[in-house]
Structures are given as C-alpha cells and as structure tokens.
Amino acid sequence: MKHISIFTRRLRSDFLTFFFTATLAFTQISCALSEPEESPKFQNLKVANWNLQTFFDAVFDGNEYTEYKSAKSGWSTERYEERLDRLASVIKKLDADIFIMEELEKESQLQDIANRLTGTFDFSRLYTHGFFAAAEGSSIGCGVISRYPLEDISVHTLDVRTGDSQPPMRPIMQFSVTKRNRTLTIFVNHWKSKSSGAEASEIWRKRQEKLLSRLMKSAKGKNKAVLATGDFNKDISEFDICIPENSQSEKNANLPVKNVILHGEENLLVYSPWILKDGEFLCPGSYWYKNAWERIDHFFAAGDIVISDFCAESEGDWAFENGQPRRYQLWNGKGYSDHLPISCTVSF
Predict the structure, then answer these.
(1) Residue 295 phi/psi, 5° resolution?
(2) Is 60 helix (H, G, I), strand (E, B) or coil?
(3) Which of the residues 54, 192, 244, 314 could staple to 323 if both were Cys, CB 3.0 to 4.6 A apart?
(4) Which comes out higher in pLDDT, residue 66 or 176?
(5) Whole-angstrom Cα distance, residue 205 to residue 203?
(6) DSSP assignment of 125-168
(7) Backbone torsion region of residue 245, taken as left when φ is above 0, otherwise alpha when ψ lies between -120 and 50, otherwise beta
C-alpha cells in the first residue's frame, strides 16, 4: 500500500500593510462611525473572489508564461497599466471588504492595485492590508486585499514523496479577520488544473481536498466561522453532493443546511451556495468553457456562518451582454479575464 505524506510547510509569502500618509490614524475612527448597526450575534462582510487570468506585471523576470516573456509578445508597461485600471474599476464596483485574486505574478502588484483604489476621503473604504503567496519557482500566485487587518496568516502545501512525482501546485493561504469581536477564518485555494488531463490530474485535486478538509475542520473547532474560496478547477457537480431530505436536520435553523462533503481523514460537511434547495445549480456559472458554463470558483462555508447574496458577477464591462466573461486577449490588449468574479455576503 502506498502511503501519502501530507504536511504543512511555509512557502514564499508576503504580508503587506499599505500605509497611506496621514490616513491610518483616522482609519479605525472612520470605520467605527460608518459601519451600520448589526446584530450582536453576527457581523457582515462582503467577500469577492476572481481568477484574473495570468495577470503578470511589466517586468520581464524570465519566469513568466512563454507568451509574456518579452516585449515581442505585445506585453508592455502600457498594457499592464491598462489591466490595472480595469481591475481597479471592477474592485470599486463590487465594493467587497475582502477581495481575493488568483493568478497574480508577485507581491508588489498588490501595492499597484491598492494605489489605484486610494481616491477617496472615506478611509473605511481603503484596502490597507494585503497578503500574497506563491509556491517556490511558480509563475503565479494568489493575493488578498482587505479593509480589515489580516491575522493568523499561514501558508500550507502538499508534500507527497511516494508514488507519482508531485507536479507544481499552488499553496492554500490561510488568514483571519475580526470585526467587533467576531472572527472569520478564510482559506484561499487554486487547485491543480486539468491541463494535463482531467483524469490524470484528479488525484492531485483529491489530495488538495483532503488537505483543505483537515485545515477547515481544525479552524472550525477553534473559532466556528470558516470560509474557503478560490478557483478549485473542479465543477460543483464533481464534488460529493449531499442534500438531506429533512432541511430541519441542521441543529441551528438559522444556518444553511450543509450540502457538500469534503473528503479527508475525517470528512467535513460544508455549504455551497451554487446548490439550490431543489438540487439544481445556480446560473450562470463562473467560467465559460467549450460553449458551456462551469462552476469551478467556489465559496464553501463551515461552522457558524451564513452566506447570502451569492452570485457570479456578470453585470459589468468584464462580461458580454450574454453574461459570458470577456477573456483577456494578449494580441490586442482587450478584455478582463476568462472567469467571472464571484461574491457573497458572509454573516458570522
């Protein structure tokens, strides 16, 4: 029998606090005055997630994908600045408290993004905190910008040394945010793609699922409000869906009924907002591929947490009139991403 060794180790990562001159002294006061009255039991945050589709900067380091490796490709400082402006416009429109991104190249891009979001005197709307992580030698990683301090930051990855050689994979990022003494733990994922073949690569997504299940279960036991998000490269229909016949089986009637099993050493029941009460899937999906919608970008909730207002954001310049995403085209510099952003309100 093959034994798979899975453990957590530190990877290349960066935590940033964006300092804005003469503003930080007032940020907490502004937040306290501008936040709406909420139930003492729950606090609300809007969370958005978006795979940005190979969002490289304008510096040629030699680690980029082939099509971005030189100015001959058409990629340039001007093209990068244009993409930054478009990204900032989407972030402003979605107005999430925490904005999570896949396929950024490096940590310094978080500062570039934050600098384009500073044109306001409402300091509570500024993204003053950031976090980036990537596997060593990887061309792309994941990043987070937040209006709230990021706490308990860690990075986790698989290290499988038996059986098939482990391919390059992105780590799982973990951090917490606290609002009025309520704490939410978030896990950011970008699972192994199917580019090497769906069947051949599925074993690695299953191992990433096992790691996430263990991490979420541990966090749930500590603070009871856990959210996993990101690009899982796995449609919701490919997960183990479990819809109880009696929706009142949930101990707390205010919490959504768990409808997905994340398999691990101990299986974990979580809630996915893609799945409607009748077992159908919410439309549209988040990724348009081979003339069909896929739902591969996810929010999974565990513990004392409620997800509401979930959607794949299709009403904006980043989508066509039919709702399909405007894929970024390197040859002409037009478009945004081949994914739609997803967003939700999290009550915890």
Answers:
(1) -115, 80
(2) coil
(3) 314
(4) 176
(5) 6
(6) GS--EEEEE--TT-S-EEEEEESS--EEEEEE-----SSSPPPP
(7) alpha
Confidence of residue 168 (pLDDT cuts 50, 70, 90): confident
In angstroms, the CA 95 to CA 335 distance is 21
Mention every residue, 6+ apart, whose C-beta is less than 8 A from residue 318: 86, 90, 325, 326, 336, 337, 340, 341
Spatial strand order of the sheet with 342-347 comes to: 13-17, 129-133, 141-146, 98-104, 44-55, 342-347, 306-312
Helix (H) or strand (E) holding 77: helix 77-94
Q: What is the pTM of this model?
A: 0.88
d(CA 158, CA 315): 37
**Mean pLDDT value of segment 3-31:** 33
CA–CA dist 310, 288 (Å, integer): 18
Tokens 């408290």: give the residue: 97
